[in-house]
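Lab notebook, design round three. We kept the backbone fixed and only want residue identities now. Task for the bench partner: fill in a sequence for the structure below.
Input structure tokens:
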């Protein structure tokens, strides 16, 4: 029997296990050390009360014959899709119900969307990168061209002069770099995609962290983007749903390639291979988008934003080049004293009891950089910020 041998060629997922192993070793050698993690990519604030209430109410409905729900509509319940539509409308983006597909999170859809594309397609992927884009394409054997992200472009690669792509991944605000494209930059990407007939896969998982008005929260804020872009979004970071699982994907009706409608293809794909998101979870997601829910989840976002701001100020004061921290829960800093990513990891852990993520784990161009996150508690972040400031000041 033949298997997909491309799996053998995938790089092992050792980054976070390496980090965990090194931290465990340090803890064993220094049991007294008060270690703070700024490496977490998961939310820590609990679900909003409005969300919990909706979950409880929906669970009760499921336990009663009159209000029980079995299989739901394949694209998601209209009540949630309408709430998502209204969420976009609040920012001046007009979508149609048929364009919104509810999912169990952005990660699944980012992988599954590749079912619509030929494995002959050429893909542009930024480096450093959220590894899911890379591995899902490697599993299919697609040709990958890396877009170099570095200090010279503020970790926001722009369209190349000559090369042409079929599929382009953009993530803004970015994980791991925290960098976010402004309107003019996204317009250039949309123009480029329209020019070469490419599809942009736009990952907006961190859109709710955007505070600056010139940074679009959706690719559809750019004229004509509906002709060339699919957008992925998630309740994970915007409403603390990492453990509840809900997201959505927008596939515009206008989006066509090779005479086919990508919206129709995605509907066909989803209704064949996916049976929807749990009713209580969709009710919880609807509650997250309600006025009350938005106020409550906004308080959790504000906690992370204040954490990010604190870390940003430490780096500014120390004169350390970095991206993110503003418009993003991630800070991507240049390692001081020309240390490489892992040297700085050990330095921070041993001298400051702080854990972060070595940039080299996100791609070749991540070497010499380091990712900090704002998802710890305010008290831990404040303590870590103080330690970090002292350490950087002493170098
Ligand atoms: N996209 C990016 C850039 C992420 O960082 C993450 C999660 O960390 C996801 C997508 C996945 O989100 P979800 O929890 O909705 O699967």
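Proposed sequence:
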């Amino acid at each position: 029997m033949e298997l997909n041998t491309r799996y053998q060629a995938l790089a092992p997922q050792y980054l976070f296990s390496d980090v965990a192993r090194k931290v465990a070793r340090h803890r064993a050698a220094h049991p007294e050390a008060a270690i703070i993690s700024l490496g977490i990519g998961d939310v820590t604030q609990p679900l909003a009360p409005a969300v919990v209430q909706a979950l409880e109410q929906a669970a009760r409905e499921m336990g009663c014959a009159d209000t029980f729900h079995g299989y739901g509509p394949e694209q998601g319940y209209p009540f949630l899709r309408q709430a998502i539509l209204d969420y976009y409308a609040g920012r001046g983006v007009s979508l149609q119900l048929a364009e919104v597909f509810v999912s169990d999170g952005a990660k699944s859809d980012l992988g599954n969307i590749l079912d619509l594309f030929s494995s002959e397609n050429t893909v542009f992927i930024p480096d450093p990168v959220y590894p899911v884009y890379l591995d899902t394409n490697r599993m299919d054997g697609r040709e990958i061209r890396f877009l170099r992200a570095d200090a010279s472009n503020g970790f926001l690669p722009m369209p190349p002069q000559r090369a042409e792509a079929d599929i382009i991944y953009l993530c803004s605000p970015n994980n791991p770099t925290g960098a976010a494209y402004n309107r003019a930059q996204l317009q250039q990407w949309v123009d480029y995609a329209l020019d070469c007939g490419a599809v942009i896969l736009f990952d907006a998982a961190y859109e709710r962290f955007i505070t600056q008005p010139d940074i679009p929260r959706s690719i559809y804020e750019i004229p004509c983007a509906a002709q060339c872009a699919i957008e992925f979004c998630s309740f994970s970071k915007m409403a603390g749903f990492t453990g509840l699982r809900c997201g959505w994907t927008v596939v515009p009706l206008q989006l066509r390639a090779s005479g086919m409608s990508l919206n129709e293809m995605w509907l066909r794909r989803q209704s064949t291979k996916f049976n929807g998101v749990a009713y209580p979870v969709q009710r919880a997601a609807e509650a997250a988008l309600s006025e009350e829910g938005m106020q409550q989840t906004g308080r959790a976002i504000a906690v992370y934003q204040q954490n990010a701001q604190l870390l940003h100020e430490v780096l500014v004061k120390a004169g350390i080049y970095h991206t993110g921290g503003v418009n993003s829960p991630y800070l991507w800093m240049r390692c001081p004293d020309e240390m490489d990513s892992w040297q700085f990891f050990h330095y921070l852990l041993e001298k400051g009891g702080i854990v972060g993520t070595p940039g080299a784990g996100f791609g070749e161009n991540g070497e010499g950089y380091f990712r900090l996150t704002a998802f710890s508690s305010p008290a831990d972040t404040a303590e870590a910020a103080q330690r970090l400031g002292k350490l950087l000041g002493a170098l």
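Keep this in mind before ordering anything: Residues 41, 105-107, 130, 171, 175, 203, 205, 234, 236, 242, 247 surround pyridoxal-5'-phosphate (CB under 6 Å).
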